[in-house]
Amino acid sequence: MIMERPQADLLVRGARLLTLAPFRTEQPRVGPAAGDVGAIDDGWVAARDGAILGTGHGDGWQQYELTAGAVERQVAGRVVMPGLVDPHTHLCYAGERWDEFTTRHSGADYLAVLERGGGIHATVRATREASDETLLALTRARLARAVSLGTTTIEIKSGYGLDPDEELRQLRLIARIRTEAAIDVAVTYLALHAMPRGIERRDFLKAAEAMVGTVAAEHLAEAVDGFIEKGVFEPEDARPVMKAAQAAGLAVTMHADQLHDVNAAAFAARLQARSADHLANVSADGMRVLARIGHTVAVLLPGSAFFVGYAPPDARRFLAARVPVAIATDHNPGTSPLEGMPAAIALAVTLCHLTPHEAIVAATINAAHALGRGQRTGALVVGRRADLLILETDDERDLCYRLGAPLVREVYAGGRRVA
Ligand SMILES: [Zn+2]
Questions:
Q1: Domain ranges, residue 46
Q2: How many CB atoms lie within 10 A of CB 211?
Q3: How far is the CA of 104 from the centre of ligand 1 (A)?
Q4: Which of 67, 126, 304, 403 would you label with 101, given CA atoms 20 to 30 Å apart?
């Protein structure tokens, strides 16, 4: 009897392979695992129908037979690693904010700009005025650039509509992008971004709470977000909206303690939020609650600290408390116009003091956990989606060292080449 060999339709071999495989069970990485990229020299990864079949080193790949039309890559001298996961973006908007960019120098100024009807409000005006076609084209172009820079899973928030009808339009457009995209798109309804003009706070909060039901019924988003910040929305404003989201089966996430400590981290942790994002001003108490409850991933956004000019979050505090850390671009036209995860990785090392390997964990598997996808992507493990990158270097530390270098050579999502 002839034993048939398993068939692979994608084989990448001879690589410095970063598997990001878990020590034991899969969970957000803390402790020694927070800096372990699972490197294998002369490594290979095989996939079939978009899922990983196996990884190993040397000539172990010979156990597979290649299908007709299989992609086989010999990549000696290159790093192969999981595709990057960007768990926090505001990709769907119209209008750039160059004037504000050139005049703003501090975090406090950002709230002053907002107060005067600039900031988010400027983007809200431009986005409302843009047609569906224009918004789709702008968002598709930004998504394509993210993919070319190695992103294979991305979160996209609404939030530039503010009033419920306009939010609904933007969510439907993002949902369309999700359907057609070559990579995995996680949609979030940013219910509480800023107070729109000409409406009572109480009425706005009620309308946002009601919208959560529509969003869940139409499957427009998988999570609900709020900007919990001094003078914007306090935890008590957000509670009914977040509770409504959870009652409707949606995850919750929050912009928390970015510019001021408003106890948003503890609020997010107690609600079992999927992630708490920014956290540049999280208090010692907030950190303790995050660590004690242990469910919420801290998503640090160094691009925003870099562009706005406030003190970035110190990742060492989170790691010391064993709070899992992820990073994201926070791509948006006002406070973080940076593109692509390699720049976020570099800034996370230089500004937030992650080691290069901790930044890679934060940009792959921990970012996947921040999106509730820790079992699906973020690591090269049997059965997961074949989301992987081939880098134009033999040392992954180049991602943070050679800032701005075009290091991402090939991008595969679900086993298919997408860039
Ligand atoms: Zn944001």
A1: 7-82+378-417
A2: 23
A3: 18
A4: 403
